[in-house]
Amino acid sequence: DKTDFHLYPLNFRQYCQLITKKNEKPDKNQLRQCFEDYLQCGGYLRAINDFAINNVVSQSTFQTYEQWIRGDFLKQGKQEVYLLSVLQALIEVGVSQISYSTLTQKVGDMSKDTLINYCQLLERMDILFHLQAFDQNKKQGFPRKNRKFHFTDPFICRTIVAWLTREGLQDLTVSDNTLVEACLASHCNRLSKTYYFKGQGEIDVIWCNEKTIQAIEVKWANQIKPTDLKMLKHFKHALILTKQQAGDIEHIQAIPVDDFLYDRF
Question: How far is residue 155's CA from residue 176's CA, in Å, rounded to a whole number?
């Protein structure tokens, strides 16, 4: 009876199995290299093939996916200039929390209803998704509070940046930290309800998985400060995803991001 299906790009584990041609987990160095490559080409097969052959994604591949996004919007009677403005604002906001009202102000010449309509179409195309703030008491989201917007795949995010740059709107870049946090949130969001938490500090991902509420913070840095972990201590099941470090930090389990994404998904 189901008529609509989500055909997602490959997740990180699927990507590793494709690249290594093995079902077993790669060794530490190979896994790290796979993750760095995944942040370049994501889970889209054409981009993966480009990167495997030339160690870079070709401009023609970027433009193919750009044309897909543009074409679907034009078919819906949308305006490309509005689409580019929305995408530019989303890239500039990055992983910061923002309301639709503030995002509308950032975009400029567009109503709030129009902005929401464009964002919802991006979400239906599985280009974009958002996380609501987590309500600890009700164990659900706060629909009226600020949201965090993420692009569903690293390659799609890079496609949009390349498109905006070529259009001359602005010389935009996306940090690895933004890509890694979005990658985590996207993997979690595919499987179960996912939020972020804002208190006296912020937690990147609240993952309501298998009746367990897991608080996950990404620290894509060489050093982690104890103050960075203050909010995690408010949750029974807390986890730090690091660049390389494993073990316990301030009594909170730390796991490299690539290990977590491979083992859990």
Answer: 12
Contacts 24+ apart (CB under 8 A), 260-264: 260/184, 261/11, 261/12, 261/13, 261/35, 261/183, 261/184, 261/187, 262/12, 262/13, 262/16, 262/25, 262/31, 263/25, 264/187
Token reading at 92: 């500039």
Q: In whole angstroms, what is the distance from residue 68 CA to residue 46 CA?
A: 14
The pTM for the full model equals: 0.94
As a whole number of angstroms, the distance between CA 219 and CA 225 comes to 10
Of the candidates 203, 199, 97, 105, the one whose C-alpha atom is nearest the C-alpha of residue 150 is 97
Distance separating alpha carbons of residues 255 and 186, to the nearest angstrom:
18
- pLDDT(6) > 90: no
The tokens describing 63, both together, are 């433009």
Q: Is the pLDDT of residue 36 over 80?
A: yes
Contact present, 218 and 241 (Cβ < 8 Å): yes
Query: Which H or E element spans position 209?
Result: strand 202-209
Distance CA 116, CA 147 (A): 12
| pLDDT tens profile 159-216 | 999 999 999 876 788 999 999 999 999 999 999 999 999 988 899 999 998 789 999 9
CA dihedral 177, 181, 182, 187 (to 10 degrees): 140
From the DSSP assignment, how many helices (H) and strands (E) are in the chain? Answer: 10, 9
Over residues 8-33, the pLDDT tens digits come to 999 999 999 999 998 899 999 999 99
Q: Sort strands 128-135 and 140-151 into parallel, antiparallel or unpaired.
A: antiparallel
Tell which residue, 181, 228, 190, has the closest CA to residue 209.
190
How large is the average pLDDT for residues 68-95? 96
Q: Report the C-alpha gap between 154 and 257 in whole angstroms.
A: 15
